[in-house]
Amino acid sequence: MEKSEEILTVENLTKSFGPVKVLDNVQLSVKKGEVHALVGENGAGKSTMMNIVSGVYQRDSGRICLDGEEVNFISPRQACMAGIGFVHQEMSLCPHMSVAENVFMWNIPTKRGGAVDFVRLYEETNLLLRRFGAGFDARTRTGELNVAQQQVVEIARALSMNVKLIIFDEPTSSLTESETENLYHSIEMLKDSGVGVIYISHRMPEIFRICDRATVLRDGKYVDTLSIHEVTPDDIVLKMVGRSLGDYYPPKASVPPGKELLRVENLSGKRFQNISFTLKKHEILGFSGLVGSGRTEVMQALCGFLPYTQGQIWLEGQKFCGKVKSSELIRLGLFYLTEDRKANGLFLNMTTRRNISVTVLEEFCHHGFLNNEEEKNLSSAMIHEMDVRVASDLTPAGAMSGGNQQKVMIAKWLVAHPRVLIMDEPTRGIDVGSKSEIHHKLRKLSEEGIGVIVVSSELPEIIGVCDRVVVMHEGSVVGEVVGKDINEETLMLMASNRKKGVDAICEM
Amino acid sequence: MRNVKKFFANFREATVLLIVLLAGLVLSLISPHFFTWANLRSVLIGLSCTAILAIGTTIVMAGGAIDISLGAQLAMSGSIVGVLFIKGVPILLAILIALLSCAAVGLLNGIIISYTTLNPMICTLGTQFVCQGIANVITTGSPQSLRSAPEFFSFIGKGFVGGFFPMIFLEFLILGIIVDVLMRRSSMVRKVYYVGSNPQAATYSGINAKKVKTMTFVFAGVMAGIAGVLTTARLSVASPAAGGTVTMTAMSAAVIGGASASGGSGTILGTTLALILLSLVDNALVLMSVSVYWQNLISGVILLAAVLLDYFSHTKKG
Which one of A63, A212, B216, B306 is CB 3.0 to 4.6 Å from B63, fit for a cystine? Predict the structure, then answer.
């Protein structure tokens, strides 16, 4: 068979997890020396598709061809051997081992007799590292490197395998600007050497900077493949959400902000300094900034889950400073919804009912004994109110979809009479429908007089939902924007702490 | 088939009860001696101390940890109460000291495990040797006979209520029922399940997870202490070897009865029924004059069958 120009073609790919069809007949084709963006909202199926291509999951049906030959990988190792590199969002490196050992994890050079050839191992690794201008040695312990450097290690690993196709899954999410620039440089080099690159990202400026084409997925279905030079970012966003953003998000606050619910002054601690802001009644306050800018840490300190060295907090006029127990703040109605609902939000092997009632056990506890009937009524009412789609309130939380889980998370705090609700990444990894429902619910809560803070890495969410936005950069507040100023351009500039015009981003 | 799976997944206790009843039926057909009060009574007396200790095992496992020092704590408690009594300490005071010692060991376990990232298995492995060591030292390694035990002490160990119902089993029954009800209905004990299921989520929900977890170890220690005191009372001998295989038997019973090594589940009823099942198997072997050396093998097979059944009834296709 003649070798095609296409390095990877995916046709009619379908995959289900249990009853949920996560990929429905999707397609993709990547050419040699092309940077191909794969875009879509969280839950659109990007990661699943890439996990199938790289052998982590197996497809239900469909065809995948690598370099003109049909392939069916049953393990990541196989895919790797065939020339598919994957630079994961979460690093998949062994922190206790040297850089070289990580790079050559799958084919450590050996001498005759099977002993590791350390001289060659380090030399070859350093050769690879030098190509990317990496400022560290192959002998360095991987755990000592920062995120960007670790990413270089991952890229080097892919290259050591003679990759034909390399997948980047949101590679810039935790990189600084100059690190991002280095990454672009690496990608250019890969491109020049004829490697196909798949680039997963939702950052439009990045896509328009380095990609040639983009394939859009929505709700597990293929939407379109666009040539980047012929479209605008709006075209892509429109294809991603499938409707204009106008009716997708709830209306903004209709009444002017009321009295002050929360005031924070000069809060400082590990990884954040001098944070001051206020939250008023009837407004949704956004916290924006890059991952690692300290947003989560501020919220956790505020709610008593992390210590802070100085600063004062007023909750509805009541002043707190120094060490305050989180349970005391919860009693006063200051609630924090964690960004990682599976790791530290829900009790996955327990029933929905028990997940909802956890915050208010005392309320249906009489003389030390729980009243099952009251507990049941409460959870049923909340399931109805939040429109959680679940067979019964005895279904374990772990068996629900992400959207329903998030609704249960909110339900469990709503029953506990919130005064201020802090939501960290309220819609991460959930479907578009639930996302919109949750956004509307937040607006409704804010109208009812509950203070709402939304911490989010997704700019569209911040822009669509919030009335006022605090932007953080490397542990400090860099500014606050209100009303019309809340747009992608301003927020991005502030988040990267640059006050110059948009050109600044492009000229980099 | 799906309904069967669902039944096994949701009604663990009913399943175990069913198997216990079936085993009882088969046994009474096989041996005419099985369904006699004398035989059943000896089975119940035999399992009582293990069952009391298993209450503690279940709570610790529901809280997401594991305690392998409980058997050694039983031996320590039994030795302390016996030796102190022999040395002339009033029996009630001796019991109190024995229980407090176990509570202290539990507190130590709990604090170390909750406030550091030390693995519960490793930590209790250490305290297990400490407790066993204490038992060995104070008894000088050999069983100490209590010649003139007071009537009260003998009664709680080997007495019969109304002349026929074993006191020791009654004591377990009372403790077991109280704790079972508490685990189902008290908000305080409910927190144990939350902490076991997901300690971070519990903390974020306003539960003091570390304190709750620590208390499970203290409680388990006290249960092991009671079991130890009763063992000495029953045999009139303070034996440093009383711990034996109790720890592992109790843990097997908890797992068969529905507790999970990853926490958040388990009930006293389930554990007790499973323990009865294991005891019936042992009893059957005796009645059928099969060598007792088969006991471990069969218990092991039951344990594996239970956890595998659990695994397959909870995993979905895809």
Answer: B216
Instruction: Enter the ipTM.
Output: 0.84
Inter-chain CB proximity A346 and B198 less than 8 Å: yes
Residue B7 lies in a domain: no
Q: How many structural domains are present in chain B?
A: 1
**Token pair recorded at residue A433:** 């429908």
- Checking if the pLDDT of A503 tops 80, the result is no
Domain hosting B108: range is 48-317
Contact A349 B191 (CB under 8 A): no
Residue B216 included in any domain: yes
Q: Is the pTM of this model over 0.90?
A: no
Q: Taking CB atoms and an 8 Å limit, are B193 and A354 in contact across chains? A: yes
Closest C-alpha to A471, from A460, A452, A455 = A455
Per CB-CB distance under 8 Å, the chain A contacts of B206 are: 326-327, 330-331, 359
B69-100 per-position pLDDT tens digit:
999 999 999 999 999 999 999 999 999 999 99
Nearest-CA neighbor of A439 among A413, A459, A462?
A462
Q: Please, are residues A124 and A104 in contact by the beta-carbon 8 Å criterion?
A: yes
Question: Are the C-beta atoms of A60 and A15 separated by less than 8 Å?
Answer: yes
First-to-last C-alpha distance (Å) of chain A: 43
Assess if residue B209 is contained within a domain: yes
Nearest CA in chain A to B192: A358
Residue B148 located in a structural domain:
yes
Structure tokens at A484: 């019309």
Question: Where is average pLDDT lowest: A12-16, B38-42, B294-298?
Answer: B294-298
